[in-house]
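Pilot study result, target chain (396 residues):
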Amino acid sequence: MSIQNPVFIPGPTNIPEVVRKACDMATIDHRSPAFGEILHPARDGVKQVLKGKSAEVFIFPSTGTGGWETAITNTLSPGDKVLVARNGMFSHRWIDMCQRHGLKVQIVETRWGEGISAARYGEVLAADTAGEIRAVLATHNETATGVLSDIGAIRQAMDVARHPAMLFVDGVSSIGSMDFRFDDWGVDVAVTGSQKGFMLPAGLAIVGFSPKAMMATKTARLPRTFFDVADMGAGYANNAYPYTPPVGLINGLKLTCDMLLDEGLENVFARHHRIATGVRRAVRAWGLELCAEGPAVYSNTVSAILTPDGINGTDIVTHGANKYGVAFGVGLGEVAGRLFRIGHLGSLTDVMMLSGIATAEMCMVDLGMEIELGSGVAAAQEYFRRNDGLAQKDAA
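Predicted structure:
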């Protein structure tokens, strides 16, 4: 693998050089006001990216998986019931975590490639007249299949059912890249990580808690120590952590939030949509299809591309790494071997994406697929030429 080439996996994403330098800093006293000048602006920046004025933001030394453990252990008790759809590898992993913590999990089985059915959630919640379901879990963007689910519609279904459950959302591969509306969607816990839309190395679990979720922490009885938000909040009040914080990563987060806000969130979302559309045009030109079952659920951060019978998607990824030094994503779980994934999120431009499309083409031709070299590149070029990102930003 060549470190000179950009990566096209759905995380960790490419790190801008200025961000890498921000993470590489001298040691400071992490219990001093100097650390507070890094920590509090970083938390405020995350709050703005979440569009969550009501959110209490916590930053843990971990990954998105630790963020989910933070969500459930701080708000739930042994034997509590949660509702969750299984429509991909990452929603499957959250189900597994809940079961390991002794929660009762009601699973809505969903075909991989489909989004979460808000209507089905609504039916289940309406039938729960005793209010046994304490939390509704939803993966906003299923990274394994390139599928986006409508969180606003899920909140509406909860409201129509007049159900008091909390809404927990996995935004690991969406927040910072696609529109996320913590307040407007009535999200109670949002979970993400540093290594995707925030353009940092892996190492931070970033969570936002609503006032309702904070109230739930008062009665939750699942064990927690490292991920205790009460301990973390007490530390924040004194410009500190309850343990040693990753100061360099948090300094990088402060910068990347500034970068996203300076670009303008709507421009960030438009850039991701434009690059993703270029990839989808290339896929169409190749005569291939996405795992996502229709435009309504297309992800703007990752495209999972189905391969024809007789072609193992993992071989494309392996060939790209070995021959061209370029990283793509493999299929996971039920879709392992059936597809390969192109990540298009974080620090990425049209020009960078064209190199990824060209490399994917070479890999497929090398492996004997009936793909015309240049067909996908030309389709993406034509789209990018007619949808100039700079012009869009000026118009905005």
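One observation from the pilot: The chain has 14 helices and twelve strands. A full batch analysis is planned for the follow-on phase.
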